[in-house]
Amino acid sequence: MTTAYDAVVLAGGAARRLGGADKPGLRVGGRALLDRVLAACAAAHRTVVVGDPRPTVRPVRWTREQPAGTGPVAALDAGAQALLDAAPAPPEQSPEVLLVLSADLPFLGETTVGRLLAALGAAPDAEAALLTDADGRDQPLVAVYRTGPLRRALDGLRHAHRGLDDLPLRRLTGGLRTVRVPVGPDEPAASFDCDTWEDIATARARIRDHGAVLDEWITAVKTELGLDLDVDTGVLLDLARDAAHGVARPAAPLTTFLVGYAAAKAAEDGTAPAEAVAEAARKAAALAQRWAAEQDEAG
C-alpha cells in the first residue's frame, strides 16, 4: 500500500549565487526546475509551494513566509501552516506524512520519493527520513517528516528563538529522530541541486547524455502536450526503423504520427491509450515488414 503524503516545495530563495535569477523558472531539458520537482511529487494528496505564484505544470496551493526571504525553516513553517489552514480532508484521507523538497532538484524522481516514504514507514519510531548524498551529507530538503513531530519541533524552535527567521535547517532536524536514506543507484543524481550557473550548465549537459536524452525528451514532450501516457518507446523506435528501412526514410516520422492518430481514435472508442498505441504500432510494423519482404522478393 502506497503511503499517503502531502508535499511542501520551497521555491522562494533569493538565488544570490545565480545573481538573483528566477531559479524555479530556469529550464533544464526544456522544463522549469519547479515543474520537474512537481512531477516527482505528483502523487501528493495536496501540494503547497512556498514562493511567488506562477504557472505550473499542475495545480498547487501557494503561500509565502512572512516576511519573505527569512530562510528555509520559516518557509517550511509557512507551507505546513498552509496545509493546516486548507479545507480539512476526511480523516481516512488526511496524510500524516509531509514530503519537503527544494525547487531546484532537476534529477529527483518518484523512485527516490518512494524510497523515502518506505524508509519512514519501516521505522515506526522515526520522525523523519532524510536523503543523504554520495558524500553522506544530510539533505533535509529532500526528506519526509511525520507531521505531528514536525509541527512540535517548529513550535519549539519558534518559542526558543522568538521566531524562525534565518534559522538553519539543522536546528530543526537535530531535534527529530531521523533515518537516513542513501541516494540510490537508480537515481544517483537525485540530490543534485542547482545553486550556481555552473550547476545549471552541468544539469543541462547531463540530460543530453546518450543514455538519458531520449527519456528526458519524451517526458518533456508529454509535459508540453499535457499527456499522461506510458508509452513503450522501444516499440515506436522499432516501428520507425522498420518503416525507414522497409519503405523509405521519410516514412518513419509519418508512420509514427499516423499510429498516434489511430491510437487516439481507438481511445475515443474506449480502448486504453497504452493498449491503443501498442496495437496500432503492431499493425503498422507488420505492414512495413510486408513491404520489406516484397522488396526482397523483387530484388
* Count, helices: 10
Computed Rg: 23 Å
Please list the strands of the largest sheet in the order they lie side by side: 5-4-1-6-8-7-9
Separation, N- and C-terminal Cα atoms: 58 Å
Mean pLDDT: 89
Q: Tell me the helix content.
A: 40-55%
| Strand/helix succession | EEEHEEHEHEEHHEHHHHH
Instruction: Note the beta-strand portion.
Output: 5-15%
Q: Main β-sheet: number of strands, strand sense, barrel status?
A: 7 strands, mixed
- Please state the overall shape, judged from the principal axes of the Cα atoms: elongated
| Total number of strands | 9
Low-confidence stretches: none
Structural class: alpha/beta
Short key terms for the protein model shown above:
seven-stranded mixed beta sheet, 299 residues, two-stranded antiparallel ribbon
Could you characterize the architecture of this molecule?
The structure is a single chain. This protein is an alpha/beta fold. It has ten helices and nine strands. The protein has helices at residues 33-40, 72-85, 110-121, 147-161, 169-173, 197-206, 213-225, 233-246, 251-268, 273-298; strands at 6-10, 27-28, 31-32, 47-50, 61-63, 97-102, 128-132, 138-146, 178-182. The longest helix has 26 residues, at 273-298. The radius of gyration is 23 Å and the shape is elongated. The protein starts with 5 loop residues before the first strand and ends with a helix. The relative contact order is 0.11.
